[in-house]
Write a structure and sequence with these properties.
Length: 429
Amino acid sequence: MASTLRARVRDRRSRESGLLRSNPDFRWYWAGQSASAIGTATTFTVLPLLTATTLHGGTSGVSTVTTAMSLPYLLLPLFVGNWLAGRPKRRIMIAADLFRAIALATIPVAYMLDALSLPLLIAVSLMIGAATVVFDIGAFAYLPSLVPERDLGAANRAMQGSATVTSIGGPGLGGFLVNALGAPIALIVDAVSFVASAVGVAAARRAEPRQGVDARPRGFTTGIRILLGNPALRNVTASIGIFNAANQAFLVNLVIWAVTENGVTASLYGLIFTVGGVGAFIGTVIVVHIARRLGHGRAMAALMVVAGPVPLLMAILPFHGTELALYLMAFEFVISVALGGFNVLSPTLRQSAVAYGDLARVEGVYRFVIYGSMPLGSAVGGILGTALGSHVGLILAGCGNVLVMPLIARPSILRIRDPREARGATWRR
């Protein structure tokens, strides 16, 4: 088993390193995206720490700043996706990076001028979140112009691998910077990472394809109509929206059930998700072999069928303390392997199935659904946990995850061996 995994890692690295060697535009772009991911991960850690330690904002202050950073994910994707369509993605991404760098730089300047305040942090958090929405949707829509269609899978694996590594190391790096430099000065390093991202994206000079003349009307609802009209995209989006909502409801209750009621220490609880990050990286390594053997659609369905029942199994574990934490780590590892692989296959499907000029519109709708479902799930999870207890809340949320399984295992998805086969399909089962 270990030798097989090592062979798969070598094969994955060979494909992706070949793409990085042969395509300098993608190499620069990948470097810029990696820098952006590091900046985003550390910023989302440092700003709440700054609120708590420098401004002594308390729970309400930290909650407000955190909400301000995530609120644009709920409000903006539909508008941003429609606005980006037909516009030069690379230049807008560069502007978004520089905007984030300047916004972050205002915080240490305000600190040195003794003008730092909670309203300023909230405003900067909103601006960072909004610029990140613009950057991420633009990045998704821009990638197919950089690599040949046959290399989209390898490109997405490289992107997802970087995102996974930064999700594991970013919070730790943010904490280290706060300890070493202080929270306000640590944000200077974050600002520099966004400048580095802008440089990387700017160095990817391959021209974006021209938008062809299309007789169909193009408006605010175009992305919605395209996504709903393609059965594979429609079912994938619905399944991930449900999964994310149920998973948020699950996480709201998990921390209470595990830490408060069953003796899992805070450090072990954090380690559960670190182990999950490792599992997600492994998922990006092995997914190409799963897709090659099963076909693209069957691989997506299989991964979600693996991930779907795991939260329910976690909820019925009859253990306590360290023993419970170890089992939770094992289950989180399994679910993260599945989701890590799925998060490579899903963007490749969307990028292959949708015309280049409509990618931003469709991605805006997709992100609106999958991120917009998360605060709803958190609210429902809180209501369930308060009314019925955290354990019952966990079980009901786990049942919600199981609902994803029949939705993802639809003929419209299972029949897809190559993601390009989903192109142009409309209103079929």
